[in-house]
Amino acid sequence: MKKRLIKIVKKAGKILKKGYYSDKSVRFKAKKDLVTIYDLAVEKYLKKEFSKYFKEFNIIAEESNNNNIEFGNSIIIDPIDGTTNFVNKVPHTAISVGVYKDKKPYMAIVYNPILNELYYAKKDHGAFLNGKRISVSKEDDLQKSLLATGFPYSSGENVDDLNDVVGKIKNVLPHCQDIRRLGSASIDLCMVAKGVFEGYYEMNLKAWDVSAGILILSEAGGKVTNINSEEYKLFEDKYIVATNSYIHEKLLNKLDI
């Protein structure tokens, strides 16, 4: 399955890359939530190929109607994670594909064709970037840790969400090295996995944003929970907290406001 999965995702990456360097027609799904014809084209291609070769899995995809699809043996697709980056030619944008068996992560790919970075993981087999094994940072001092976060689409209209985001940044920023905001959850998780960031947190993410990245990070030695230090559950939890494991509880303490 691995070789076929990677081959399909790389071909889909050609669609993303072509769109990245082209003029784009943009539609707003919500005040800050964009979609382009390339999101739709990548998703259509992935669904067609996955349906052909991986018939034992159903498909849950960002731009599709998933109302009648039960999460179980599922392939979860984000055709372009970081669409705002994609539209504005910021190179942090990726295809995210998480393969789940009985609701448990089994295999994952995050592919950024702009930077030619393909992250891959299989349960209990480690995490890799372009074929080379990766692992998390060993930093255990929160003050020396570089963190990442993101801002929810709801921040443009939901005052409670906006205040929560700002409050957490105010509480965390003085106690870490700094905070980055790349604009792609799947890439943020991979950046923790390869030891660039020590930690990452964000609210209101969808399953397709993180389904691949959480396995890649876990296989690289990291830790992923909700904000209450419990197992992070796709489709359920409001906040994701992901770290190298060494600073996990320290970061959770600062997020507790």
From TrEMBL:
Output the SUPFAM superfamilies linked to this UniProt entry: Carbohydrate phosphatase (SSF56655)
A UniProt-annotated Pfam family: Inositol_P
Q: What class of enzyme is it?
A: hydrolase
Tell me what reaction this enzyme catalyses: a myo-inositol phosphate + H2O = myo-inositol + phosphate
- Cofactor(s) listed: Mg(2+)
Gene Ontology biological process terms from the UniProt entry? inositol metabolic process; phosphatidylinositol phosphate biosynthetic process; signal transduction
UniProt cross-references to Gene3D superfamilies, sorted A to Z: 3.40.190.80, Fructose-1,6-Bisphosphatase, subunit A, domain 1 (3.30.540.10)
InterPro entries attached here?
A: IMPase, Inositol_monoPase_Li-sen, Inositol_monophosphatase-like
E.C. no: 3.1.3.25
Residue numbers binding Mg(2+): 62, 78, 80-81, 209
Q: Which UniProt keywords apply?
A: Hydrolase, Magnesium, Metal-binding
The source's superkingdom equals: Bacteria
**A molecular function (GO) term:** metal ion binding
What protein family does this chain belong to?
Belongs to the inositol monophosphatase superfamily.
PANTHER family this protein is in? INOSITOL MONOPHOSPHATASE, INOSITOL-1-MONOPHOSPHATASE-RELATED
Q: What is this protein called?
A: Inositol-1-monophosphatase
In its UniProt entry, the species of origin is given as: Aliarcobacter thereius
Q: What gene is behind this protein?
A: suhB_1
